[in-house]
Amino acid sequence: MQNDPTDSQMPDAAWEPVEPVDAQLEAFWIRARNVAKFNPLEVIVGMDDTSSLRPAAFCFGSNKDMADKLCQLVIDGTKRATSGWLATYEALGEPVPEIGELAIVCDGSGSPRALIRDTEVKILGFHGIGPDVAEAEGEGTFEQWKLDHEQFFRAECAAEGLEFDPEGEVVVEFFEVLYSY
User: Fold this and answer.
1) 1 and 73 in contact (C-beta within 8 Å)?
2) Which of 67, 79, 95, 126 could form a disulfide with 108 if both were Cys (CB 3.0 to 4.6 A apart)?
3) Under 8 Å between Cβ of 88 and 81
4) Is 31 helix (H, G, I), strand (E, B) or coil?
5) 96 φ, ψ (degrees, to nearest 5)
């Protein structure tokens, strides 16, 4: 999962990604996997990888306020997708997400709030993205999505020492919320 912009004020905000709070993650993961019923036979047959390995945790956005806003959109069910710049994945040596991957979404204080699972992953040209992606991201109109995401991807590229290419590709992850509070 990559960070995700929220509104046209993003460039005015400092690029200060929020880090998840490790001390809270394990308790959240235990509660979430029980509620999501990953392995109801765990007591009899033991844990499998899905129930024993805590998924990655992250905060959407580039700062505390964005992380809070986007996390709440996930919890409310409004945000069902996120987009990341493919070149950033490659530069950081991160694999492109796959269907079925789990992740813990944290709020702006780094507290875990939702467990999500990828249901679909697409790689699309930035200019080929349509209104369906903007709607699934739940952050406003398609026109506003394009403007905000171009600004966000430019800032993200700059932070990673990359040149932004408007013809570049975007990784779009669609997800479902398995547990939130």
Assistant:
1) no
2) 67
3) no
4) helix
5) -70, 135
| Two structure tokens written together for 42 | 């765990």
The 8-class DSSP code of residue 37 comes to: T
Cβ neighbours of residue 109 under 8 Å, at least 6 residues apart?
18, 21, 64, 68
17/10 Cα distance (integer angstroms): 12
Q: Which two structure tokens, joined as six digits, stand for 30?
A: 């235990």
Write out pLDDT tens, residues 7-44: 434 444 455 767 787 889 999 998 898 888 876 555 55
Full set of structural domains in the chain with CATH: 10-180 (3.10.400.10)
Tell me the pairing of strands 169-180 and 102-106.
unpaired
- Could you tell me how many helices (H) and strands (E) the chain has, helices first? 7, 5
**pLDDT at position 3:** 53
In the 3-class helix/strand/coil scheme, how is 138-172 assigned residue by residue?
CCCCHHHHHHHHHHHHHHHHHHCCCCCCCCCEEEE
Which of 31-45, 113-127, 152-166 bottoms out in mean pLDDT, i.e. has the lowest? 31-45
Q: What is the pLDDT of residue 20?
A: 81
Q: Mean pLDDT across the stretch 77-100?
A: 96
Predicted TM-score (pTM) of this structure: 0.82
